[in-house]
Design goal:
about 45% helix, Rossmann fold, homodimer, alpha/beta, eight-stranded mixed beta sheet
Chain lengths: ~350, ~350
């Protein structure tokens, strides 16, 4: 493991770009850019033919610069299964990654080129652009309270990826000083459901609080762009609405999967297609931890109502079945009593 | 509609072949066959080169004959959704079809080239090789009792395709005279799950009672061959074992689908993959009639136990969730009372 005390911030901090449109005259300013983005004005004549290959390939250097400017330094706080899953894509896209968690995940961090920090003070002193909270729902509050917020730049963007949304929104608003930006998100997939890529999978987000400055809006856009580049279906939605819908979809699905899992079903020689779907559903939902499921219940106020509706639905189905059974039996009883008494 | 009284049996009755191996000397007897399978002995010289094309193509005629001999005259009793679904494949394979049901399904029958009979007496007088009971589970007994069994040949093979198996087995054994053959089957698919063909789908059967005569065993094999030709996975299994397994697979799947259907779920903009599986399961199970589901419950003695197990599983999951909620609250209560009282 890298010792956090011996590890300085190895990556230069990317200061937010103070000018969101740095290139009002592209033909001219492209010429003035050097590989490392520093300006030089040495009286070189302006070159107007943009598409011809130039000896120093200014166009490609300029686009490299823009690409570099869109790269973020992201601190992933909570580097478990889901944090590592996200990190692999962040790293592939060229972002600088820092990782922090209570357990020692230094090997996993090293495998994606992320620096691992045990001490949150060291992490925060690296001045990440984005602090991404990727803990379990249950430990989110404790972990957030453990961060020395005063060591971060005051402009830091906080993002969460929890499967409920009202709870982290309120937690952020309550615990973070007003100078931090807040983006609540829910990538509605995981290592199992997105093993073939993220394309077409929903990514929900709510821009809870963003300072009205171009560089901070750009940074948020750059973060969201990580997911749109992978082909996610980007859905902007208030946290409250997310939780209402998610109780009826995600929490319900997990509940059904976990109830059926308790029956300890085996594949049979005579599986119907429907039964195979059910087995797949069980496999899919139970590959997530019980803590996640418990979090979906405990931290979504709509979940209790959903459980009650499910209870009512199950009771009503049983009543229909037993009612018909009773009807048939009663009919037989009456028929036999009629044939005894009469005609 | 074809009037049943005006409709004689239009297809020649295919008498069971008394000799299961009719061709001990193929080179000789092939020569002696005529297109319609009648024998002639007019002293033609034997031809020994079987693979050369012959002016009268005896080889192909002989195989045509064998093919014709494997064709069955099948009376489908109960010509609803499922009976019609099976009939389409039977017809494509060249079997002769007769159909009977209380409702007028003469148009559907005509569309697959089947003769439709309103009057079961007319149907039975046609002497089908196979009587296939394809009613709903709930009406099976009433329909079977309505058939004039005395008009059938004593060697008739009775087959059912009900989704429970102990019940029709006992019904057949109880109501059919001992000279009839009995085969209980369950094609574990339907118009929805097998819309792309039957390949790989399970077909369960139990040879409940077959007279020990080659022609009757061959006829049963010919009937089963309809399903193996389509690529079904043929599973021979006692009726009791089928019902035990089916309660835990098919009835459970339908129950889950119908409970969830009662929640009246809609697709959302943020469907997870798991939730889409659940919606598909609902669609799949609710495309079958409630009568089928009710039949799976009422006529399978293992279903009540399955409902009870599901009840216990749901309760136990709720207890886990509410237990953890309570634990957390209690911890907070104790912590706050400790901080009030002391230290």
């Amino acid at each position: 493991m890298l010792s956090s005390s011996s590890l300085p911030c190895r990556t230069p901090s990317l200061l937010p770009n103070p000018n969101p449109n740095p290139n009002p005259n592209p033909n001219r300013s492209l010429l003035l850019l050097r590989p490392h983005g520093r300006c030089c004005r040495r009286g070189a004549p302006p070159v107007l033919a943009m598409d011809a290959a130039q000896p120093f390939d200014f166009e490609s250097r300029a686009s490299d610069l823009l690409e570099r400017q869109s790269k973020l330094k992201i601190a992933i706080v909570g580097f478990g299964n889901f944090g590592q899953f996200l990190a692999r894509t962040f790293a592939r896209q060229g972002h600088t990654l820092l990782a922090h968690s209570r357990s020692d995940h230094s090997a996993a961090a090293a495998s994606v080129g992320a620096a691992f920090f045990r001490d949150p003070h060291d992490l925060c002193e690296c001045h990440p652009d984005v602090v991404l909270l990727a803990t379990s729902i249950l430990s989110a509050e404790r972990v957030l309270r453990s961060l020395p917020l005063q060591r971060l730049r005051r402009s830091t963007l906080f993002v969460d990826v929890l499967s409920v949304k009202e709870f982290p929104k309120n937690l952020f608003l309550q615990l973070l000083p007003p100078h931090f930006d807040i983006l609540c998100t829910h990538p509605m997939f995981g290592p199992e459901s997105a093993k073939d890529g993220w394309a077409g999978l929903p990514f929900v987000y709510d821009k809870v609080r963003l300072a009205d400055a171009d560089d901070r809006l750009d940074r948020c856009a750059n973060f969201l762009d990580i997911f749109s580049r992978e082909g996610c279906r980007m859905v902007e939605m208030p946290c409250g609405e997310h939780d209402e819908i998610a109780a009826e979809s995600q929490f319900l699905t997990h509940t059904v999967g976990r109830v059926v899992a308790k029956l300890d079903l085996k594949p049979t020689p005579i599986n119907t297609k429907g039964y195979e779907m059910l087995l797949k559903l069980v496999e899919n939902t139970c590959s997530d931890s019980f803590d996640l499921y418990n979090g979906l219940f405990m931290y979504n106020k709509n979940s209790t109502e959903l459980l009650e509706r499910l209870d009512v639905a199950f009771d009503s189905l049983k009543k229909e079945l037993f009612g018909r059974l009773h009807d048939r039996l009663r009919k037989q009883l009456f028929e036999s009593s009629q044939s005894l008494t009469g005609s």
